[in-house]
Amino acid sequence: MHYNLKKAFTYIFRYLMMPVLLEIIIESLSRKSLISGIGYMFSSPVLFSFNALIIMLTLSVALFFKREIFVFITVAVVWLCFGVANFVILHFRVTPFSAVDFTMINTAISVSGHYLTVLNVLMMVVAAGVLGFAMVSLYRRAPKHHKRNHKHIVVSAMAVASISLALVFMKSSSGSVQALATNYTNISEAYENYGFVYCFTNSIIDTGISEPDDYSEKSVKKIVNKLDDSSKNQSKSKNSDDKPNIIMIQLESFFDVDYMKNLKFSKDPLPVFHKLCKNYSSGLLKVPTVGAGTVNTEFEVLTGMRQRDFGVCEYPYKTVLKSTTSESVCNDLASIGYKSHCVHNNNATFYGRNTVFKNLGFDTFTSMEYMNGLKENLNGWVNDDVMVPQIIKTLDSTQGSDFTFGITVQSHGKYDVDIEGEQPIKVTGAKEGMENQYTYYVNQIAQVDNMIGNLINRLRKRNEKTILVLYGDHLPSLDISADELKNSDLYQTQYVIWDNFGLKKSDKDMAAYQLYSYVLGKAGIHEGLITRYHQQMDWNSNSYLSDLKTLEYDWFYGEKYAYNGQNEFVQSNLQMGTYPVTLEDVRKNKKGYIVKGKGFTDYTKIYFNGKSLEGYKIDAAHYQITDEIDYDADEGYMSLQYAKENGIVDEDIPNAFIAKVEDKDNVCLSAGKPLLWNFTTLYLD
């Protein structure tokens, strides 16, 4: 009897105290202070208990396993790892750790070199190794229950049911917990107020757009019938010469630093931007993120849809847009003859853009892999000056009107780098310990401002009507608080609209999802359902946002009633590079083989039968292969499609070429025609 009481007490103590201890540790890591973590327990006891109960529920799963101790400790370790991950991430960005971060592991790895040193990586590897060894040892040594009788299973099920009921009861009876059901708009504040455990768990469960209560064909048609279609015909009938080129540039972590109350500068870091705002239409831009999450602002600008209508912390680029097409500014403009381009001085796979842009209707995508003349700043990001010639190239690539979307990267964090020499602009008034970071950041955006000036000078020399839209995607990750800003809003950046044909200046604050329709309206373009919705509806009406959400749900998850049940948007045949990379000839020389073509860069790689060949770019038109090529000219024929289906050419690598070899000294290339089987497969990575 005494033994059973002791065992019961041990069970209760373990399953009650471990969640409390874990919750204190996790909140302390989230708040970067043990005192603050303990303080949360006393200042918000109900919310603290709710978070602890969630942990308890996950720990109680161990009751059903023979290796109960091992499972119990494993679950506890997982929660600790989540807490540590959140602690680390908050040192590099403002947005806390959420479930969506698991979908962006490849993206995180690709930029880790900008944030982590070799020592940091080594320490992480060692820590992971030690943890793995400890868990294996625990698995071998932890006690194992050889018998789990019916009574134990029933008691375990009752315990899990009790915890679940407690969670349901707290959610329905406590006002502070009921507040958790709302779709919070400030993620960082939500994590601080409601607790990491709840918010992280919610980010796992809450994805997509919830179905509106009154969703039906009738409710959707009611919204659509409010819109006037006559304006659509006006934009279609306009002569192509009257349609301006439209350029939108998303400036990484860019905002007007004059909005900082205490910062002072030795000279104006943004003279071009300030002059533009004075003379052209401009205003504050409400964005869905702060410090990170660039593509959520990008999503809103390109589609006219609200990211916050999706799940908590969700990145539509990493969920629905990976496999679903969407209405977008590209697709709307395509209906009146525009070609759409994207220029981005970072890698193509960042945030999966090389896949998503097909579903958004882009015709070309020029990433850094297709650029020459790249230079890096101290932080390892490519300087933005390369954007100017690349953007001009997109305008030269077609006879008609173009939409070009630029994505810069130079002013990306992190900012605590060792500044070399004296900076052109001195910064004072920064918070203690942040002087170096602000100095580096301000001097970076000063260079971005100079790039803007150079681009406008180039555009002025062209004999084409052009609209240029500049906006910041989010505030930089510089630990800025709302009370440090003159506008007191961490979710506002700025935009300005330049043109060369006399558009009327009209300053207006708006949200990122309203920007492209507003710009098209100024150009007299009214194509697209979402475009006309924003152009014609009252932004301050009670139904404006709820009706927009209904249209979003209808397209992505509903029956497409607004589009008569049809999928109006098809995936584009996205070309990598403004101009296609071409291979024209291969000839034997003393060093190996010299390949002649167009569009070669420092990222070009040439493959032979799936093997990467050693070589280097000579210039944009010549590539030197230094490997010897062995081949057999006596094989049968195959098509390019056959090569892809059988893994000879990687489906994900664009611009594939199969070479027909006439002799060792003269290799002639062709593409997309009947080609030699198992022969020279040359393609660009």
Tags for this entry?
single chain; 685 residues; alpha/beta; nine-stranded mixed sheet; 22 helices; 22 strands; 40% helix; 14% strand; disordered C terminus
Distance between the termini: 72 Å
Number of strands: 22
Work out the helix count: 22
Mean pLDDT: 83
Strand content: 5-15%
Question: What would your notes on this structure say?
Answer:
By secondary structure, this protein is α/β, with parallel strands linked by helices. The protein is built from 22 helices and 22 strands. Strand 16 and strand 17 form a beta hairpin. The chain starts with a helix and ends with a strand. The C terminus is likely disordered.
Task: Please outline what is shown here.
The protein is built from 22 helices and 22 strands.
SSE order and pairing:
Elements: H1 2-31, H2 34-43, H3 45-59, H4 68-89, H5 105-111, H6 118-141, H7 150-173, H8 175-178, H9 187-194, H10 196-205, H11 217-224, H12 230-237, E1 245-251, E2 264-265, H13 271-279, E3 281-286, H14 294-303, H15 329-334, E4 339-344, H16 353-360, E5 364-366, H17 387-396, E6 402-407, E7 427-428, H18 435-460, E8 466-472, E9 492-499, E10 510-511, H19 512-522, H20 529-536, H21 544-556, E11 575-576, E12 582-589, E13 592-598, E14 607-608, E15 611-612, E16 615-619, E17 622-625, E18 637-638, H22 640-645, E19 656-663, E20 666-670, E21 675-676, E22 681-683
Parallel strand pairs: 1-6, 1-8, 3-10, 4-5, 4-6, 5-11
Antiparallel strand pairs: 2-7, 3-9, 8-9, 12-13, 12-20, 13-17, 14-15, 16-17, 18-21, 19-20, 19-22
